[in-house]
């Protein structure tokens, strides 16, 4: 057998192999990070090992964030949920072109996925929709989104947003809410520690059963029931108080609600030795960070500050009278959430707290309705202007939703700026996040700092940062398309099959084949470019490896963050508004079902995976012989079929060397490999539309073949032939095919006077609206037959990472004839 030909006839196609895939993304991540790093300020000692460890981690573990603009947050079953996904780097929040696939799920209160979809990403964004079936029960659900790369860092990093779905075709089964003091009250020591005799700030958070902040009166008492300090929340159930644990005393908190009921909660554990941290404003432009300790031999101490792994600064101080103090210039901190971490003399983290800096760099969006008032079935035109904080025009990518306001829809916004700079870097739900960006209340700074003290969290673990030989990431970024993962295991023992070639094909007239060779753990993966819609997959091994089988893995992440959905309660007073949502949904589905099911078919390469064949035959153009051997003998010179003692042998001409290969070619029927040449010869030629031959060696990922012989049937359905009995046949959902948003136009008297009912409550949805170089844009739509107040919600992002949103309302009145 000849060696693989190293010339222009060697072709590389979308087949995959584990090793090259793990090499390519590493290089790609390095390039992406170098592009970003030029804009990341790095300060202070260049030789500080803690700072160097953090920089090394940042270089290796590129952070990725997703923001999802969902058209609304309240639905009735039977409606469509529309969404736009923005993919950004976690440091600068600039659009990131790393991942080409996002995963979006709707989870119930038990974290069971009720809806799942895969969404194509291009140029840092993607969009799609989900039909909410009437099989869903009424309740609160969680929409979460992530990429394959984000799986490496845990589900706490995923985008999550609660939504409410009510099924009007089922009786509401509401839980019985007991009249009990079911408050969630937690206390947090600033920096993480309470140390005996050292004064600390203690923050607290009080939540009711609805997940919203509660206003309780509190008091800290000692073991003798003597009052030590009284406290009450400032905003959203959060507040703080100063506290100094005395020697030999124990403490607890007693809380009382408006009805006079009391409950007791413990304070954080008091340490006999350790460190405390306090951060205070030092004038307008600086922070003073004070470290105190009761630990002997405590010098020196280090302070590391950074904003989302950027703007890194490391400083060192020695203790004097068990106190060390640092001054931090606010200008050295990035906008949003910064981390201040204290390390002891052995460079172990001992204290940490968060600081929030309100952004000055933002996108300003102005949307103006060109007509003052609107009536039903009238054209609405909005002029858009996008500018940066200095008033300079900003080229912006926007998403727009326009929907009717009712008592069902919460007033909270789906704001991209508050998500990127605040909620995405905090654990747990944040009540009214837009307040911290738009409010002018004099207490907003203190309220924001209370939030930092009670929901402090970082998007990494220090043990991962400081380790010298971190393990390779388990999940790769999908830089070209969806990765299907699987495993080869021994059918009897369950042990992994190492170094075995595997094949994944999609039966059809569009010939697609992917190859992979298993690694030491038996893992395989296939890179599926332009893989849209539901498909039938055939995964198989060469029959010579018949002791093994292929298993495909679930592409969705099966680990979840801590549940945070409140108890579902639906007041009977909302019966009429619910009816006003249910009837329009049913009318739209009844009269416009066809228009609501129109899709934008993606443009994909329809050429077979092997490209243009060396020989191509349309069998209808030739004599129709009854057996396959005669076809090869009569008019296919590139293929030779000979019957031997052990059965048929098929060989393909090695065209560059003018002789036949000694090995068997890859034989395909509608893209599915056939390994038995006897079965190939049994194929009825009258069911085959065309035959294509590659008369040279061909490489599919890690697999090399002595030519290709490809049969295509008239319907691309294998014409009744079955793959190998041990092949895995699976139904698999590819990337979502985008649905067209339908809205009627009333631009003629005939259309305006149509008797077809139009009860749309979602008037307009556009996921990708671009303003021009002057920051100008426009969108338009027609109102429906539904009068009332409508809200528009706009989210936008520029190429340099400025984000902003704008919302407003307008009224639609009924036309009186």
TrEMBL record:
Superkingdom in the source lineage: Bacteria
Gene3D superfamilies on file: 2.60.40.1930
Designated name of the protein: Macroglobulin domain-containing protein
Species name: Larkinella knui
Lineage: Bacteria, Pseudomonadati, Bacteroidota, Cytophagia, Cytophagales
């Amino acid at each position: 057998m000849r060696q693989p030909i190293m010339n222009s006839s060697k072709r590389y196609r979308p087949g995959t192999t584990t090793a090259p895939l793990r090499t390519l993304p590493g290089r790609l991540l390095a390039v992406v990070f170098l592009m970003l790093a030029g804009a990341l300020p790095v300060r202070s000692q260049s030789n500080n090992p803690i700072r160097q460890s953090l920089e090394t981690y940042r270089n290796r573990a590129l952070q990725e964030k997703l923001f999802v603009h969902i058209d609304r947050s309240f639905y009735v079953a039977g409606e469509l949920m529309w969404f736009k996904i923005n993919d950004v780097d976690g440091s600068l929040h600039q659009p990131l072109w790393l991942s080409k696939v996002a995963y979006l799920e709707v989870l119930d209160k038990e974290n069971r996925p009720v809806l799942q979809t895969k969404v194509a990403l291009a140029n840092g964004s993607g969009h799609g929709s989900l039909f909410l079936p009437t099989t869903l029960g009424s309740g609160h659900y969680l929409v979460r989104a992530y990429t394959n790369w984000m799986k490496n860092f845990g589900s706490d990093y995923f985008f999550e947003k609660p939504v409410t779905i009510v099924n009007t075709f089922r009786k509401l089964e509401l839980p019985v809410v007991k009249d009990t003091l079911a408050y969630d009250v937690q206390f947090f020591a600033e920096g993480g520690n309470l140390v005996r005799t050292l004064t600390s700030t203690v923050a607290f958070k009080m939540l009711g059963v609805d997940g919203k902040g509660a206003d309780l009166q509190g008091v800290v008492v000692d073991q003798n029931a003597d009052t030590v300090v009284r406290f009450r929340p400032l905003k959203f159930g959060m507040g703080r108080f100063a506290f100094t644990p005395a020697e030999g005393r124990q403490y607890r908190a007693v809380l009382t609600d408006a009805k006079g009921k009391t409950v007791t909660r413990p304070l954080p554990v008091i340490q006999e030795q350790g460190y405390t941290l306090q951060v205070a404003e030092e004038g307008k432009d600086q922070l003073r960070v004070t470290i105190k300790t009761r630990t002997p031999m405590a010098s020196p101490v280090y302070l590391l500050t950074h904003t989302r792994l950027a703007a890194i600064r490391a400083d060192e101080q020695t203790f004097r009278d068990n106190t060390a103090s640092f001054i931090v210039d606010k200008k050295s901190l990035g906008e949003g959430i910064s981390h201040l971490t204290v390390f002891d003399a052995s460079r172990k983290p001992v204290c940490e707290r968060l600081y929030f800096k309100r952004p000055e760099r933002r996108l300003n969006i102005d949307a103006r309705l060109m007509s003052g008032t609107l009536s039903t079935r009238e054209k609405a035109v909005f002029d858009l202007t996008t500018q940066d904080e200095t008033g300079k025009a900003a080229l912006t990518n926007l998403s727009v939703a326009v929907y009717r306001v009712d008592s069902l829809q919460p007033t909270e916004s789906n704001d991209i700026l508050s998500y990127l700079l605040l909620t995405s870097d905090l654990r747990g739900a944040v009540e009214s996040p837009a307040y911290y960006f738009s409010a002018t209340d004099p207490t907003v700074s203190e309220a924001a700092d209370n939030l930092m003290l009670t929901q402090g969290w970082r998007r990494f673990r220090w043990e991962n940062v400081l380790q010298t030989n971190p393990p390779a990431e388990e999940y790769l970024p999908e830089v070209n398309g969806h990765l299907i993962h699987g495993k080869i295991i021994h059918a009897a023992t369950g042990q992994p099959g190492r170094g075995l070639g595997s094949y994944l094909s999609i039966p059809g007239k569009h010939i697609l084949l992917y190859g992979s060779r298993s690694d030491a753990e038996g893992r395989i993966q296939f890179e599926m470019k332009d893989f849209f819609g539901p498909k039938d997959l055939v995964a198989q091994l060469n029959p010579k490896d018949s002791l093994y089988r292929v298993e495909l893995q679930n592409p969705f992440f099966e680990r979840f963050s801590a549940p945070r959905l409140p108890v579902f309660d639906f007041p009977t007073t909302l019966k009429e508004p619910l009816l006003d949502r249910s009837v329009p949904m049913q009318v739209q589905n009844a009269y416009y079902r066809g228009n609501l099911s129109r899709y934008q078919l993606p443009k994909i390469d329809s050429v077979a995976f092997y490209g243009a064949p060396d020989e191509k035959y349309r069998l209808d153009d030739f004599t129709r012989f009854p057996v396959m051997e005669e076809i090869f003998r009569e008019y296919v010179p590139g293929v030779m079929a000979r019957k031997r003692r052990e059965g048929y042998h098929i060989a393909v001409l090695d065209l560059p060397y003018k002789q036949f290969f000694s090995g068997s070619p890859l034989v395909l029927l509608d893209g599915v490999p056939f390994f038995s040449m006897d079965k190939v010869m049994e194929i009825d030629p009258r069911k085959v539309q065309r035959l294509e031959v590659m008369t040279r060696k061909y490489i599919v990922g890690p697999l090399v073949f002595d030519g290709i012989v490809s049969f295509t049937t008239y319907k691309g359905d294998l014409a009744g032939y079955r793959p190998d009995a041990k092949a895995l046949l699976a139904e698999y959902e590819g990337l979502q095919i985008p649905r067209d948003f339908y809205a009627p136009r009333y631009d003629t008297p005939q259309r305006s006077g149509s008797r077809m009912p139009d009860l749309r409550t979602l008037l307009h949805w556009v996921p990708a609206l671009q303003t021009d170089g002057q920051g100008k844009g426009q969108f338009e739509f027609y109102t429906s037959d539904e009068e009332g107040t409508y809200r528009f919600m706009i989210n936008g992002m520029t190429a340099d990472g400025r984000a902003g949103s704008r919302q407003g309302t307008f009224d639609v009145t009924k036309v009186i004839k």
